[in-house]
Specification:
Length: about 375
């Protein structure tokens, strides 16, 4: 099992900027165990293939034990398993910092265990401000990400006993001076999310929300609709499955209809379509942008998260809606070329080349 901190330039990037431009709210720090496996193991895992269904720690440990006899070797990977800081928000924030040089911070909690140390090390090495990350007594969250031969992933997180940030621990100081806060929808963190949105709005901070998973929408649609209808979500990201689930009771439940629905409540709405690219709407403008690099997909883990990194980079640079989508496509296309939700240095260079070819601004990032 390759445990990786993935340092850039071999040194810890300073986490001293008092007011990061973009914050990530991830109440539970998470470690991802990403591994390519054969289909026979997926048949043994509880629940349907794909998506993200929570499991108990015993089940997660059982899956990790079984993984050893079901790993698929890959000539491109030095290790068949990557163990790195994970979680949708952490992936997005790390991508913004490491790949685009955007000043970022993360709000959350990690445990006093090896997984907690790894989360802090990985995020710190990638330049993320950790001053809003609380250390607590207890375990850090973990997730096993099983990737099949086609690059599709089945995620089984274990968060039930993990330490987390509570709603009453958030302060105005956490958000002061920042421009955006990035969040992921989840019923288990709904109180923290609501509290964060309230403070963010008081501080004039834009809110970006990722819809998480089609299972989360299917089972907890009503609280999500309340969040959207509040008008406090400025930017919303959904993938095709989530978009369809959002409108499951409607006759016309296609991605375009979902985009229109989200755009009623959010200033920016984006629906990603995997190998078919994405559609996005801002005001009266709607754009469709093709995917980049999908033919090389090894692992879909983090594709949407890194799309969000590129899109948000475009927004803070003041670029057009189409350019933001193109940046998202380049970033998402880079991460799917290797295991895990982190862009490797080689794939980062590939991404910059794609951006250059499309006339997009390359960030000033040390590599």
């Amino acid at each position: 099992m390759g445990v990786e901190a993935s340092p850039r330039n071999g040194d810890v990037a300073p986490a001293s900027a008092p007011h990061p431009l973009i914050l990530g709210l991830q109440p539970v720090a998470l470690i991802d165990h990403v591994v390519r496996v054969d289909w026979s193991l997926l048949d043994q895992v509880p629940g349907d293939r794909g998506g993200s269904i929570p499991v108990a720690i015993e089940e997660l440990q059982h899956i990790l034990g079984e993984v050893k006899t079901h790993m698929l070797a890959s000539p491109d990977d030095t290790s068949p398993m990557r163990t790195i800081a994970g979680g949708s928000v952490a992936n997005t924030i790390r991508g913004l910092s490491a790949n685009f040089g955007v000043s970022c911070g993360i709000i959350g909690a990690y445990g006093d265990d090896e997984e907690g140390k790894l989360f802090v090390s990985n995020m710190g090495f990638n330049g993320v401000n950790l001053s809003r990350l609380r250390r607590k007594k207890g375990p850090t969250g973990q997730c096993v990400c099983l990737v099949d031969a086609l690059g599709n992933r089945t995620m089984r997180p274990c968060l039930s006993n993990a330490v987390k940030v509570q709603a009453d621990e958030l302060t105005k100081e956490d958000f002061k001076g920042s421009k955006w806060v990035v969040m992921r929808y989840g019923i288990f963190n709904i109180e923290v999310t609501q509290a964060a949105i309230k403070i963010a709005k008081q501080e004039g901070v834009y809110v970006s929300l990722d819809l998480a998973s089609f299972e989360m929408i299917r089972n907890f649609r009503s609280p999500l609709l309340q969040l959207l209808e509040s008008g406090d979500i400025d930017l919303c990201f959904a993938n095709e499955d989530e978009a369809m689930e959002l409108l499951r009771d409607e006759q016309n439940a296609d991605p375009e209809a979902a985009l229109e629905f989200l755009a009623k409540y959010c200033k920016w709405a984006v629906v990603t379509l995997g190998p078919n690219g994405c559609i996005a709407k801002h005001g009266k403008e709607t754009v469709r942008v093709p995917a980049v690099g999908e033919a090389k997909a090894t692992d879909a883990t983090g594709a949407g998260d890194l799309f969000a990194s590129g899109f948000l980079y475009g927004l803070v640079k003041g670029l057009s809606l189409e350019e933001c989508c193109k940046l998202g496509a380049c970033s998402g296309g880079a991460v799917v070329q290797s295991l895990g939700g982190e862009v490797t240095p080689e794939n980062r260079q590939w991404m910059y080349k794609q951006m250059q070819m499309k006339g997009l601004p390359n960030p000033d990032v040390r590599n």
